[in-house]
Amino acid sequence: MMKTVLIESLGVGGQLLITDELENYPGFPNGVKGQELAQMMEDQTTKFGASIDYTEVEGVDDLDKPVKVIHTYDKDYTAKSVIIASGGSHNKLGVTGEDEYAGRGVSYCAVCDGNFFKDQDVMVVGGGDAAMDESFYLTGICNSVTIVHRRDELRATRMLQERAFSNPKYKWLLSHVVEEFVGNGVLEAARVKDLKTGNVYDYETAAAFIYVGFHPNSEYLKGILDMDALGHLYTDVHMRTNVSGVYACGDIRAESTRQLGSAVGDGITASLSAFHDMNS
């Protein structure tokens, strides 16, 4: 009988925990809250016998051997099969003041921090699906939401764009970039540059929510597993990596679509492959 342990650093659900509403996941025609769906998945996981240990993976050893070793900050685990589903994290802008005002106006999670800025004017930096999804959530809390995007067109899906452009709470700084965050103890403004005119000016905002891309959480696997230049793990169609007994699924995998449905499918495939390989 197999024993399955899920090692989780914060909470089960990953990006679900910082996603307000999912509208494209099968079985929920009226949408579902990210945290609600994550709790359903956690309940189903433990119902069928898996255990969840809350700790942080710090490294791995002997992945190419029959018994692999996973190091966490408080203990080591051994396993015959390892499925890597460590996902990714949001990118930073890398501008002056970003770290200084992190948690004091600069945020990477609208669902986590939006309520701190109720009835205030905030901005979202980015123009993709994540930026539009989370900015829409903020329009239900904040007085206004300004979108800052370096291009003159958004990258989000047409549905998300249409919803945003029809909402009077949105303001737009297209063809703009943030060059610096400024304030006095807390964030007071973003120093922005108009890429068409070159004009640089301070734009007052109570908060800035950053959604400018995503990078895989694979640093601890470099030099051990094959990955692309950005750190996404290569797998075959069965989710097998280049090392026997090691599998990858979801956003950490190369060619991932970054969709929940496909990540779930990856996870099912990886689990079936691991079970097959251990019993063949």
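^ that was protein a. below is b, sequence first then the tokens
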Amino acid sequence: MTRSNKMKQILDQASINRSLKRLTHEIIEHNEGVEQVVLVGIKTRGIYLAQRIAQFIKQLENKEIEVINLDIAPWRDDIQHDLERTQLPIDINGKQVVLVDDVLYSGRTIRAAMDAVIDSGRPASIQCAVLVDRGHRELPIRADYVGKNIPSSRRERIFVRLQEVDGVDEVLLDRIP
């Protein structure tokens, strides 16, 4: 994605890092440590955000935690697919599973991720961490940990750009003509 002049930067690299550090502290505090925590990054940018949170956890708690990469395509209800559903690569029974994504909008991506987790086992809890919550839910889903609430209209789009994918860390707001 190329950045147009009409896009407004909502978060820069420093703001994203502050948000992720705060999310990390909240995850540690809420779960009374990280011994049973598993991070599940939702493809694509959620994976990199989960990896960054895991790095912050390592810095703060001196513990490495599991990060699972999840492609939710086989569980989506809004696209046709012939993809095989697979189990998560580790045992999640009794774990505190934290789904990590870049933007929470309709709730459909998180619902699909929850289905994937439930198909793989019975975690103690499923929590949700997002960098941006923009509202406009179609399903009764909320994030437990939010980096930034960005109220937006349906005629606006939020773009999260990350160094690992896009070469820069920023969150942009764009109005659809």
